[in-house]
Amino acid sequence: MYGPMRDRPCPMCTNWLGSVNGNASDISQRASLKILGRSPVEPQIAFAQERDWRSLEFVQIVGDDYANDLGLLTPDGGESPALVVYRRDGDNVRLFWSSAMRLEMAEPDQDTRDAPDIASLWSILDLTPEGRGADWYPKLEYAR
Predict the structure, then answer these.
(1) Average pLDDT for residues 121-136, to the nearest whole number?
(2) pLDDT by residue (tens digit) across 43-74?
(3) How many structural domains comprise the chain?
(4) Do the domain assignments include residue 139?
(5) The pTM is what?
(6) What pLDDT does 89 receive?
(7) Considering the domain boundaries, does residue 132 fall inside one?
(8) How distant, in Å, are the alpha carbons of 11, 38, 113, 137, 138 from that of 142?
(9) Nearest Cα residue to 22 out of 111, 119, 109
């Protein structure tokens, strides 16, 4: 959401986390939910307060080992967003499922589609006659 190369968070991650925040209390009844980021946790928390997200827990990853191990770092120093699920197996915690959104997954003239497709935004827009639209993308702020 808020990689170290960004001054402001990713609009798509922001959109997705907004809907996750609304369900975080329900999710936490069945699973532990953490939002991991490579940038310092302070700007992540400040942005969460700006958006009035009260149910998400942000964690700063120290170093790049975690992102490297999952193959999330891009050649330019950025990262691919990902959803990662772990499962406790006795005293061990094991990777259960993961999916990352990589640029090479995109169709020509399309955004990549993978992990964020579970966002309610796309599910709802896909039900409308106009669909997602060819030139629309979520923004961090809209004119009022």
Answers:
(1) 79
(2) 999 999 999 999 999 999 888 899 889 888 88
(3) 1
(4) no
(5) 0.74
(6) 92
(7) no
(8) 12, 27, 23, 11, 9
(9) 119
